[in-house]
Amino acid sequence: MTIALDSNKTKIAKRVIEVFEFFASENRRATVMDIVRRYDRPQSSTSELLGALVELGLLYKDPASRSYAPTPRLAAFGFAAQPEPIASGRLFDYMDRLAQTSRAGVGLFGVVGTHVQLFRWVQGADLASGALDCGASVPLSASPVGLLLLSSLGLEQASRMLWRLNAEAPPEDRFNLADFNEIVARCGELGHVTGDSGFTKDSRVTAMLLPEGLGERRLALGVVYPTTATVNPDALLATLEHGVGHCLGEEQVLAAPFVRSMVN
């Protein structure tokens, strides 16, 4: 009985997060059916869930259109315990502008257990960069961003996690442990990485570690673009460093000139 109750609580928590992530993906309003179709959930329980969020003051409900929208209370929850420049919204604003000017997808990545997860995703106009959602995740060993984040944990801990990932992986996904330890060490020296994204087919990523002090664990900021795009990874990295540097200061965040070349 306890296991069944715990499973039910997990399902409820997951569905609440799905609603929040729906609004986080630039959807300002939603109906019950929008959520039902997006996540393949029962209509009755979805309607009940949205009603409960309205009672808690996390969503508004428009009686005329029967649609829902997030309240400032929900926004306050999201930023309350975050350090700068996340709490002020400067980092997210920069991500939005970079996605708009480059037309590529921009992601904020972090470590969750043995996976690298998209904490925030801004889809660029070029859909070939990969149709991802917040919360998407892959094993740390399956993405260069994961290996980059592993390097921030220290080589000893990273090696232990790689051993565990390799031991738990199906035969077709296993890798040479010594080679991957060397890659992680190199990532730690450089602080950035470029390679096949690992999240979607035919997409690549250029990402950099964000400075320490932006949370309990290091984060990485990356741009995901089609493998067919003509991209200079060094120039893209300079763009990221430029933007992050401004986010950490008081100046307005501006995209470096490089991003205009990605539009074409």
Describe this structure in words.
The chain has 10 helices and 9 strands. With 264 residues, it is of the alpha+beta class. A 6-stranded antiparallel sheet has the order 6-5-4-9-8-7, sandwiched between helices. Strands 1-3-2 form a 3-stranded antiparallel sheet. A hairpin with a 4-residue loop joins strand 2 and strand 3 (67-70). The termini are far apart.
Q: What gross morphology would you assign?
A: globular
- Count of DSSP helices? 10
DSSP strand content: 15-25%
- How far apart the termini lie comes to 58 Å
Radius of gyration computed on alpha carbons: 20 Å
Main sheet strand line-up: 6-5-4-9-8-7
User: What profile does the largest beta sheet have?
Assistant: 6 strands, antiparallel
What structural class is derived from the secondary structure elements?
Answer: alpha+beta
Secondary structure: number of strands: 9
**Percent range for helical residues?**
40-55%
* Secondary-structure element string: HEHHEEHHEEEHHHEEEHH
- Report low-confidence residues grouped into runs of 5 or more: 1-5, 250-261
Would you tell me the overall average pLDDT?
87
